[in-house]
Amino acid sequence: MRVWMIAEATLYTLLTAERVLSVDPALVDEDFGDAYAWMRSQMACRLPHYEGHWLWWAWVHPPCGHVRPDLRKRQLYHNGWPVGTPCMRLELDVPAVELLLSDFDMWHAVLNYSPLVSSDEEWDAIEALPEPEQRSAKEATWLRLFALDEPQDPFWHGTDRQRTVQACFETLRLADVCDVTMFRTRPTRW
User: Fold this and answer.
1) Range 71-83 average pLDDT
2) Rounded CA gap, 52 and 85, in Å?
3) Cα separation of 50 and 73, whole Å?
4) Where are the alpha helices (DSSP H) in 2-103?
5) Closest alpha carbon to 3 in 181, 165, 162, 111
6) Tell me: the pLDDT tens digits for 134-188?
7) Which of 128, 158, 163, 126 is nearest to 141 (CA)?
8) Non-local CB neighbours of 119 within 8 Å, separated by 6+ positions
9) Which residues contact 91 (CB under 8 A, 6 or more apart)?
10) Which residues pair with 88 in a beta bridge?
């Protein structure tokens, strides 16, 4: 399946030398550790060959309805890197059995430890639960981010927007690289 990653160019240098890479756990953002651990648990449940490594993130359907990430959309893809940072857009062909696809917008409920709901009533019902039960109720709602064949919820997606889909996978291989587009980060324009 065709996916795209945005990363610093140093990653490609390392990939060409090593040929196969796993994510270095020391580089995982501590602020998102719990959310990433939850996604790793979902990988373990849903992908039979998952070995437990930290995850690479890529775009299947990037924001703004583009086929691949539009590098002119600096605020979406440049991750706060300093202006002038050498970066790349990697186009990859990763076997579909190695990918876990999810809704990017809905993923923010997991990142923010919020329930993934479609109504105030559903939110209030979860918030009314005693604390120990709230966690499992919230996590149960998070499974919705994998239901990509379900009609889009207007609360999360509006009415006329293509769903933004991300992919997680465990192993980055040079053999899966189809194209590399190098660029340097520029100032964000709002």
Assistant:
1) 71
2) 31
3) 33
4) 9-18, 33-46, 74-77
5) 165
6) 999 999 999 999 999 887 777 666 666 678 999 999 999 999 999 999 998 887 6
7) 126
8) 155
9) 2, 3, 4, 68, 177, 178, 179, 180, 181
10) 7, 182
Query: Which carries the bigger pLDDT value, residue 3 or residue 186?
Result: 3
The label of the residue with tokens 């997606």 reads 157
Cα→Cα distances 171→50, 103, 156, 175, Å: 10, 21, 30, 11
Q: pTM of the entire structure?
A: 0.91
Handedness of CA 137, 141, 142, 146 (dihedral sign): positive
* Both tokens assigned to 36: 């990433």
Residue 118 has pLDDT above 80, yes or no: yes
Interatomic CA distance for residues 189 and 168, integer angstroms: 29
Judging by beta carbons within 10 Å of its beta carbon (0-12, 13-18, 19+), is residue 160 exposed, middle or buried?
Answer: exposed
Q: How far apart are CA 134 and CA 122, in angstroms?
A: 12
| Beta partners for residue 21, in sequence order | 172
Instruction: Say if CB 98 and CB 158 are below 8 A apart.
Output: no
Beta bridge partners of 18: none
For 30-46, b/e burial (b = at least 16 CB within 10 A) is eeeeebbebbbebbeee
Q: What count of residues does the chain have? A: 190
Between CA 160 and CA 149 the distance in angstroms is 16
